[in-house]
Structures are given as structure tokens and as C-alpha cells.
């Protein structure tokens, strides 16, 4: 199934910026970065739980926001894109 | 239906920052801001087309990215949230 992962990480301090990098690094192992804080991941149920657990172990639940959208298996007609296609290098530091 | 709108706007210059504010201002008229660049909007087909046209008239297609995810009418079980719930004031300037 396609799982859309979106996040807002509070990057006011160095710890926040580190969390941001760690989250992106995890997500990129499982899917495609389509925007700065948006990943599309093709996951089965076990992978999804694993990724969720990893991300939850990284975020600061009082400062960061993490959302999962489950788009199912028939997702092709559920997505529309406009504008440029950004390409992000996951190994680069993410400064938002 | 629930439409998820996500965007990346190139804010390298003042024009970009203006586009970012304009996009947020449009989206907030139609739905709820759930993260910095993520809106959930309950729209019928006509509203969706209208909002899409408005947003497309704002973005710079060579610099910005705009994505729509159509989550349908049965969306309650398709969304999971973790961490803090941010509250954004749409009238505030958005500096990312």
C-alpha cells in the first residue's frame, strides 16, 4: 500500500535539526521524497509498523508533528502533481 | 471528499515568500492546516477545481511544487497523527 508521510519538525535548536535529518534518513530508506517534508512509501503492513516505530523513536512528541496517510493499493488516480519535481539528496543536511 | 494539499514553495526571494503566503491564504479558506505546508480540505468536485485553479494561478510552476491527494469520503481510518498539533495563524507571515 502507499503510505504518505508528512512531518513538521521543530528545528529551533540543534537537536531538532538532528531529528529532522534522522527522520528524512529513515523515510528515504522506504520511499520517495516528493517534497521537502513529504515522503511516499510503498509498504506492507509489517514495514509500515517498523517505520512508524522508528520515526516515533526519533520525534519529540511535544515539539514535532508526524502524520501518516494510508492511500491503499489503488493510489494512481488519487495523486495529482503540479509544478516542478524537486530532487532532494537525502545525505545532505536539511535546513528548512 | 477529503483533499490533502501539500506544497513546497521556493522562498529564496521575496516573490517566493509572497507566493507562499498567498497559497496558505487560499488553502485556509477551504480547510484545516495540519502542518506547515499541509492542508486537509473537505471539498466537493467544483470547490476542488476552483481551489486548484486558484493555486495554479499563484505558484511558479518552474520553482514550486504542489500536490493533491484525494482521500475520498471515507477518510477517517486513513489518517494517523503523532506528536504535537500545531496551530498556525494564517494571517501571520510564514517564514520557513
Name of the top-level CATH class of chain A: Alpha Beta
User: SSE string of chain A, helix = H, strand = E?
Assistant: EHEEHEE
- Could you give the distance between the termini of chain A? 29 Å
Indicate the overall shape of chain A.
Answer: globular
What's the Cα radius of gyration of chain A? Answer: 13 Å
State the helical fraction of chain A.
25-40%
Kindly state the number of beta strands of chain A.
Answer: 5
Strand content of chain A: 25-35%
State the low-pLDDT regions of chain A, or none: none
Task: Summarize the helices and strands and which ones pair or pack.
Two copies of one chain form a homodimer.
Chain A (H helix, E strand, L loop, with lengths): L1 E7 L5 H15 L2 E5 L2 E5 L2 H14 L6 E8 L6 E5 L13
Antiparallel strand pairs in A: 1-3, 1-4, 2-3
Helix pairs in contact in A: 1-2
Cofactor (chains A, B): Mg(2+)
Family (chains A, B): Belongs to the CRISPR-associated endoribonuclease Cas2 protein family.
Subunit structure (chains A, B): Homodimer, forms a heterotetramer with a Cas1 homodimer.
Amino acid at each position: 500500500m502507499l503510505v504518505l508521510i508528512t512531518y513538521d519538525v521543530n528545528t529551533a535548536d540543534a537537536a531538532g535539526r538532528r531529528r529532522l535529518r534522522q527522520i528524512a534518513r529513515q523515510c528515504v530508506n522506504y520511499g520517495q521524497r516528493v517534497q521537502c517534508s513529504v515522503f511516499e512509501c510503498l509498504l506492507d503492513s509489517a514495514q509500515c509498523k517498523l517505520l512508524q516505530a522508528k520515526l516515533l523513536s526519533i520525534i519529540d512528541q511535544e515539539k514535532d508533528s508526524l502524520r501518516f496517510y494510508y492511500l491503499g493499493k489503488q493510489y494512481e488516480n488519487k495523486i495529482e502533481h503540479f509544478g516542478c519535481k524537486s530532487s532532494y539528496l537525502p545525505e545532505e543536511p536539511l535546513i528548512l
